Amino acid sequence: MLEIINVSKTFNKGTVNEKKALDRLCLKIEEGDFITVIGGNGAGKSTMLNMIAGVYRIDSGVINIDNVNVSLLPEYKRSKYIGRVFQDPMKGTSAGMQIEENLALAFRRGKRRGFAWGIKSEEREFYKSELKKLGLGLETRLKSKVGLLSGGQRQAVTLLMATLVDPRLLLLDEHTAALDPKTAKRVLDITKDIIEEKKLTALMVTHNMRDAINMGNRLIMMHEGRLIYDVKGEEKKKLTVEALLKKFEEASNEEFANDRMMLTK
């Protein structure tokens, strides 16, 4: 479903701030995979998502989505394949617009638009039914401005918007990192329910090792822009945080150095 073939990216090339973010990265994702992505600081996790989404152009290599080479396509042309949720709950929604207006924008993404903006009653009922699944009471607040919602509520709406029209690939970039533990768990539960219900293919970058182990069917570890560990199935289910740290040290020949991840292990 997704192929990343020998993709490299270096920022600030030729300067004192030169940074090799991806180094001939290779990754193949099957339809229906739910992959968690972990790694230390500067491992290339978010850069990989940005390359897939087309935020930055790759230096070399190939990215295929559904056997279509999207390597040179701009971000807006890749958006028809991709849904994305960012770490910051303020991204992905328009604070000054109502919940239903935000959902309407997401629902009509990629469709031909006329001059009529009005939301029809059956469309509104659809939004209500989708919001009700979140279990946050937002189905009764369609007219509320998104900017008035809590961080967790807003992130849940963003997640719904990203999956309202089933994307071929869902990218989650530490989407619970800015939330308190209780809210983060709720958003993770919603994430799992949506992915399972819609049978989506997803990549989730996380700094929480337990979440990385407990969520999804496959886990990959990155280091210095490359994939150093890939585990799935029964082997993944048997993983512990301690075993994961040991795998990192064996594969990279150095100790794991990421304070955020160590605090949430």
What does this structure look like?
A six-stranded mixed beta sheet has the order 6-7-8-3-9-10, sandwiched between helices. The chain has a four-stranded antiparallel beta sheet with strand order 2-1-4-5, covered by helices on one side. The chain is an alpha/beta fold. It is globular, with a radius of gyration of 19 Å. It has helices spanning 45-53, 75-78, 99-107, 121-132, 151-163, 181-198, 209-214, 233-237, 241-252, 259-263, and strands at 2-11, 19-29, 34-39, 60-65, 68-69, 82-85, 169-173, 202-205, 218-223, 226-232. The chain is built from ten helices and ten strands. It is 35% helix and 23% strand.
Uncertain segments are none
Number of strands: 10
Rounded mean pLDDT score: 88
Tertiary shape: globular
Structural class: alpha/beta
Element order, helices and strands? EEEHEEHEHHHEHEHEEHHH
How many helices?
10
**Sheet with most strands:** 6 strands, mixed
Helix-residue proportion? 25-40%
Major beta sheet, strand line-up:
6-7-8-3-9-10
Structural topology:
Elements: E1 2-11, E2 19-29, E3 34-39, H1 45-53, E4 60-65, E5 68-69, H2 75-78, E6 82-85, H3 99-107, H4 121-132, H5 151-163, E7 169-173, H6 181-198, E8 202-205, H7 209-214, E9 218-223, E10 226-232, H8 233-237, H9 241-252, H10 259-263
Parallel strand pairs: 3-8, 3-9, 6-7, 7-8
Antiparallel strand pairs: 1-2, 1-4, 4-5, 9-10
